[in-house]
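Q: What does the assembled structure look like for these inputs?
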Amino acid sequence: MPKVKIPRKSTSIDMTAMCDVAFLLLSFFILATKQKPPEALSVSPPNSVSAKAAPDKSILITLTKDGRSFLMLGDETKKADIINNINAAKGLNLTAAEIKKLNKSLFIGVPFSQLKSFLSMAVEPSADKLPGIPTDSTNNEMTDWLHSVTNVYAGSDQRQLQEMLLVKGDNAAHYPAFKQIKEAFKKNEIYKFRIVTNGEAVPVGSELYLNPPKSN
Amino acid sequence: MAEMDTSSGGHHKKGPGVKKSKKLSTRVDLTPMVDLGFLLITFFVFTTTMSQSTAMNMNEPKDDSTQVLKVKNSGAMTILLGKGDQVYYYYGQLEADKLSEQFKSTNFKEIRNLIVSKKKATNIDDLMYIIKSDKESTFKNAIDILDEMSICAVPPGHYAEVDMTPTEELLISKTEEANGIK
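A:
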């Protein structure tokens, strides 16, 4: 009987296809990841078990470690209106060019009295050097800013505004600074706002873990 | 597919003395490149932190001096936040002659059990947690205690943030001194 000859085949496989897949996945992941917006202010927020995602578009008050407050107006459509409103309300006498410049800057972190000189600077100083918006009990300028915000949003959906109002504080910030921000909200009759936190798992065995709320 | 024609086309013929160079295969081994690709993928997958920040709701009461919420003595637990992540607490109302008995200190690890046991021991209608933050306490403390409330499923309206009284401030500073908390 003749032997059946099995032809020897090479064991090397064409890797081209696999290579294609690998790099396709790689480029997909790189392009699909949403990059964090550049944060001029580094703040490490506390943890909470809240599972609601923070909105992208927001009016954010940032409280730094040393108790300075900054305001970021994230809603580009209303930003100019808010700045115009505060300009008129506080008699800041900002020129059109200055308003435009303020509109472009990422955050507001100077008192009204220094706003003009801040805008005349050629290079925007880094956030570490800015004094922040004063929130003392005698001179709480955050109240005025929030007043302009409520004015501008007066006609639109109030629930939407409530969802946009965020406070992001640093772990190490002292409580009185946070209290002043709360006061600023209260003076404008805003009783609901949200705190930016890092998500955290609900501790196993706690009441919330055993009986999670049915609706958010 | 990814092969190129390397055979020297008939354009320049080599003379008889010139040796024909050996035809080399243009197939490249792509295995290391695949390795590299997957290595990069794993690297990116592991290094990206999924840090979608969350938002916690805050509800502030209206300042209305005409409407003062009355709390039953038996259902009240006052939680005081001091510096150095210290927590102090007492039940009911402070009584001048029993201060040292009532006023106790604890920390954030223990407070959950205390909140839960108070909740279990009290009729839910009478239950009230009063949270007071010292000026030396941090933002983290204030948020953590509110978070504890939601972890312990304390219904909204059964806890409130209130300003500290001078007596309590004094008690905290004395306790801090005694415990050596800086």
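The two ends of chain A are 79 Å apart (CA to CA).
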